[in-house]
Amino acid sequence: EVPKEPPKIHRLDESVVNRIAAGEVIQRPVSAVKELVENSLDAHSSSINVVVKDGGLKLIQVSDDGHGIRHDDLAILCERHTTSKLSTFEDLQSIKSMGFRGEALASMTYVAHVTVSTITKGQLHGYRVSYRDGVMEHEPKPCAAVKGTQIMVENLFYNMTARRKTLQNSANDFSNIEDLLKRFSIHHINVNFSLRKHGASGADLHTVGTSSRLDAIRSVYGVSVARTLIKIETSDNDPSSSIFKMNGFISDSNYVAKKITMVLFINDRLVECTALKRAIEIVYAATLPKASKPFIYMSIVLPPEHVDVNVHPTKREVSLLNQEVIIAKIQAVVESKLRNSNEAQTFQEQI
Ligand code: ADP
Ligand code: MG
């Protein structure tokens, strides 16, 4: 039945608006872990420990040994758009840290219960404080602390019934978190990462700093992956086409998997670039049809003003200036490396 009059437009409650926005930034437990670990990395931590209960729905706890948070900043820490990393819009062009919009912690407080414990250098004790809907629930309380920050996110999506239900039925939240930390650990090879299920005695993932990328990949993904890897690198420094540097490892014909693993960092930011992934898959399908689902680790560095990191609320997908040129160049090196290794292999088999 068509109503006689048009429906009246009204302004949504701020709390509703905030919760909707928060649900976009924090889509699943793994998105909260990513934001928290990136904050720890931005705080120059050398050790980051993650504890998870119920795939992250009951508890996500991230502890680091970074620079900590000043006592005076705790009052506004979890408000929307409060950040230590960005002040003008122009800063966005040269942003080096992973966070920048001051939205992550705030978002978590709109869809979960957040408790922060932190200590800064030279202090005798730390402070602990809990947040809800962007604000402190009480004055920070002195607490024992050694170094850095610990953030606890409890009862994620407690106020989003539908989201909670769908997530409760999906068993893969823990493995998504493990997969994320594996990715971080093979890029940030100087940082120790650990992941543990709450109450478990041992860790599911534990990495120790190393100076070799290949060692890191071997310890995290196993010898069977590491021994199939070929080192690749390329760069371009032509302002009229593209400026970038790329280095990484790609699997050869001995790596056979059901799906592609593409670990991509652009300017040290863990991102997805669907176009690049497709382009590489095409090269593999044409060159090594039997090993067409490769393992790829790739780090691309380009001038910060050539990357738009602000195209997606989760900052996951990025777009690059001269993307086609860059992708074509990367495709060319991948192809030549694969051909060389294939020829070497065939030659070895013949002798
Ligand atoms: P952003 O990272 O975009 O600045 P966040 O909401 O993730 O926004 O964090 C807000 C601010 O809180 C950061 O700018 C930083 O100053 C501080 N912060 C968050 N986590 C940590 C941490 N683990 N160690 C030190 N400071 C932190
Ligand atoms: Mg952040």
Q: Can you characterise this structure?
A:
Belongs to the DNA mismatch repair MutL/HexB family. It is found in: Nucleus. By secondary structure, the chain is α+β, with helices and mostly antiparallel strands. The chain folds into 2 domains: 14-206, Heat Shock Protein 90, CATH 3.30.565; 213-350, Ribosomal Protein S5, domain 2 (2-Layer Sandwich), CATH 3.30.230.10. It contains 9 helices and 16 strands. The strands form 3 sheets. Strands 1, 2, 3, 4, 5, 6, 7, 8 and 9 form a 9-stranded mixed sheet that branches. A hairpin with a 5-residue loop joins β1 (47-53) and β2. Bound molecules: adenosine-5'-diphosphate and magnesium ion. Magnesium ion is lined by residues 35, 38-39, 99, 104.
Helix content: 25-40%
Arithmetic mean of pLDDT: 92
Task: Indicate the proportion of strand residues.
Answer: 15-25%
Number of strands: 16
Taking the sheet with the most strands, its summary is:
9 strands, mixed
Cα radius of gyration in angstroms? 23 Å
- Output the CATH topology of the largest domain: Heat Shock Protein 90
Broad CATH class of the largest domain: Alpha Beta
Individual helix count: 9
Write out the CATH superfamily name of the largest domain.
Answer: Histidine kinase-like ATPase, C-terminal domain
Label the CATH architecture of the largest domain.
2-Layer Sandwich
**What is the 3D shape?**
globular
Bound molecules: adenosine-5'-diphosphate, magnesium ion
Report the end-to-end length measured between terminal Cα atoms.
Answer: 81 Å
Domain module tally: 2
State the low-pLDDT regions, or none: none
Structural class assignment: alpha+beta
* Topology pattern, helix = H, strand = E: HHEEHEEEEEHHEEHHEEEEHEEEH
